[in-house]
Amino acid sequence: MKLSLLSALIVTGIAAATLSSAAQAKGRLVVYCSATNAFCEAETKAFGEKYDVQTSFIRNGSGSTLAKVEAEKRNPQADVWYGGTLDPQSQAGEMDLLQPYVSPELANIMPQFRDPAKRKGNYSSAVYIGILGFGVNTERLKEKNLPVPQCWKDLINPIYKGEIQIADPQSSGTAYTALATFSQLWGEDQAFDYLKKLNANVSQYTKSGIAPARNAARGESAIGIGFLHDYSQEKENGAPLQLVSPCEGTGYEVGGVSILKNARNLENAKLFVDWALSKEAQELSWQKGQSYQILTNTKAEASPLSLKLEELKLINYDMDKYGAEDVRKALITKWVNEVKMGK
To answer: Is 218 within 8 Å of 225 (Cβ atoms)?
Structure first.
């Protein structure tokens, strides 16, 4: 009898411990996020609440995050890299810094974006598409009696001296997309001739790709080069901005999500990738996260402020070439030596 009672107590204790454990958060997840702070916060918070996972994020630009991931490769401090341009994530895949994962949600993603990185095998997945262009502060242009530019080549007109901002490609994936876009539009030599002329009109190379949009919105500059969804957000908040998709055609980013190699919380990282690709998460990006990119999930409803792919003049962006480690490093080094050092 005593033995039976003891056994019953042990079983009861085990059951209680199991219930207690189930009631607690099912582990942790650390996300390196390269999208806007509002986007990162909305998505990680919703994921944590939905799946009962203690989720935190650290926000930084794509270029800076790549450097951080590489520095930490022997002892990863995060599990997932989310948002920001795909090129640095593609490079991370080539550098063997990522863990491949085929999400069941890929069936709902536009076919051309199901395995977008150079290294094939689903080392990265695509969550959104952002269109490169520029936003202009119409009030500042009016005060200075300047016309609204419509083309990339308009921006090198000396009348815009000191009125343009773009990010630094050493830290910003947005700015690297611009380097890659100009190289594909005109060829590398003409692209760098253009960048040197543009340099004369640039007042500041910002650390992040979002900063030129915010500074143009505040009237600190007349023109900011970047992804147009950032300017849509500022316009929604009341800024006197006009969005321009340049007449020559333009490039675009693919926003990525990748699992870091040797992630400490691998199962939660896989669950997060499923979440990021889902209809629910992609719609949340604009409903709560104030992000107005084109969504990759074909079942997700886009924001009314999002641009439409079929209405845009886009280049045939070579993701494989310009997502490659050697090409990216060479372009950025050339930009530093030939453009920035001349500032």
So the answer is: no
